[in-house]
Structures are given as structure tokens and as C-alpha cells.
Amino acid sequence: IDKNGNVYFASDTLYSLDYAGKLRWKLPLGEVNDCGLVCDSEGNIFVGIGGNKVRAVDNSGITLWEVDVPWGGFSTSPALLPGKLLVPSNNTRDFFIIE
User: Fold this and answer.
1) How far is the C-alpha of 46 from the C-alpha of 58, rounded, in Å?
2) Nearest Cα residue to 4 out of 45, 56, 58, 59
3) Residue 77 pLDDT > 80, yes or no?
4) Alpha-carbon dihedral of residues 98, 78, 29, 49, nearest 10 degrees?
5) Residue 88's pLDDT is what?
6) What residues are paired with 39 via a beta bridge?
7) How far apart are CA 94 and CA 12, in angstroms?
8) Rounded to a whole number, what is the distance in angstroms from the first to the last CA of the chain?
9) Using one digit for the tens of pLDDT, what is the confidence trace for 9-62?
10) Sorting pLDDT into bands at 50, 70 and 90, what band is 91?
11) Within 13 Å, how many C-alpha atoms sit on residue 40's CB side?
């Protein structure tokens, strides 16, 4: 949920609903989302795709960027720090940091 009450969820498509439950937009991801979503204070949504990519989408459904995680393999939610997105590895104690 973002600060405006919009709700986001994903499977192979990222969906946005308004506070009343009406569909705002949907965005096909091409692969299955296999971890939780993260939303920043600007309403940007960060979604893991296929366990080896992270995509940033703005609150109107436009893809901002997509990056491959170099070591591949994550299935837990990314975490936000000021100006950074941390993506934890499945197999090690490492994090991939996106600034």
C-alpha cells in the first residue's frame, strides 16, 4: 500500500488498485514475481521477477528501470534505505545494493 492508499500485488502481472478496490492499471511482468513488493515514499514500486531481476515501476504503471541481480537467486523482499534498495541473496549472506 502506498501513502495514497493504492494497493499493489503481483503474480506474472503487477496490479494497482485504488483504495476502493477499483483497478487503476496492470503491467505484465513477463515472469512470475516470487517475493514481496516494496513501495517508496514517492510511490515507486520495486518488484522481484523470476528470482533474478528487480524492476522499478512508478505509481502510474510506467517501468523506470530493470536490473539483473548479478548472482541470481533471491526470493525475499528487497529492503529500502535512504537512496538505496537492498536485495538479499538466497544462498549467501550478501546483498545487492541498487542506488
Assistant:
1) 9
2) 59
3) no
4) 90
5) 75
6) 45
7) 26
8) 22
9) 999 999 999 999 999 999 999 888 878 889 998 899 998 887 778 899 999 999
10) low
11) 17
Q: CB-based contacts of 4: which residues, under 8 Å, 6+ apart? A: 19, 43, 59
SS3 of 68-94: the string is ECCCCCCCCCCEEECCEEEEECCCCCC
For residue 73, what pLDDT band results from cuts at 50, 70 and 90? Answer: low
Cβ(45)–Cβ(57) below 8 Å: yes
Cα 8–chain centre separation: 10
Residue recorded with cell 516494496: 38
Contact 38, 80 (CB under 8 A): yes
